[in-house]
Amino acid sequence: MERLRTIFFDVGNTLLFPDLEHILAPLRQRGVSVDETRWHSVERQTKQEFDRVGNDGRIDHGFWHLFYTRLLKELEIQDIALHDRLVQIVRQSANWCMIRPGTREILQQLGSEYDVAVISNADGKIADVLAKCGISDCFRTITDSGLVGYEKPHPEIFQKALQSMNAVPEQSLYVGDVYSVDYLGATNAGMKAILLDASGAYRGTKYPRVDSLAELKEKLPL
Length: 222
Prior knowledge:
Layout (H helix, E strand, L loop, with lengths): L5 E4 L6 E2 L2 H4 L1 H4 L7 H18 L5 H16 L5 H11 L7 E2 L3 H9 L3 E6 L5 H7 L9 E3 H4 L6 H10 L7 E5 L2 H10 L3 E5 L12 E2 L2 H7 L3
Parallel strand pairs: 1-4, 1-6, 4-5, 6-7, 7-8
Antiparallel strand pairs: 2-3
């Protein structure tokens, strides 16, 4: 087995998490409250559905279209304009700014043993968000689909990231949160992969997974 040299990270739901207060403001303005428990429940169901049915080629948009279709149905709200506004807000990188304690320290520890980088489906601004959250300097390169022009799981975005690091797929690991996008995208590009499954969407499945960055660090090298 090739020695692991490079670790690439997804950002959303892997390193940074959504600012629910801001993202769900249009619902709150209507007097509708969605707590974190419900959010994660809908997230788990959406990931499982998304992995089954695929998408229309707009990966990020397709996922959040499904997510909010399911959430608004649970809330018994029928409003296309509200649905589209919620999708628009959640797809803005700036709204993914919640960082869990110990993230920077773990990334620094990993960076002392591996080359560490980012591959993210984003809007061209993910580097700015990582900087504001105080972790951009933990990565040698940041590959953003909004700048590259390809979204995961397209092989081109993985190839661009590998080239940016002078890395080879067989010695590289990708850490993300959606099986059909992150795990399959990376493994189809020849990389190793593992799911950081904070919501528990893949608990009980055969897929390689961890609950947190701390657990990932304990499992390395893979």
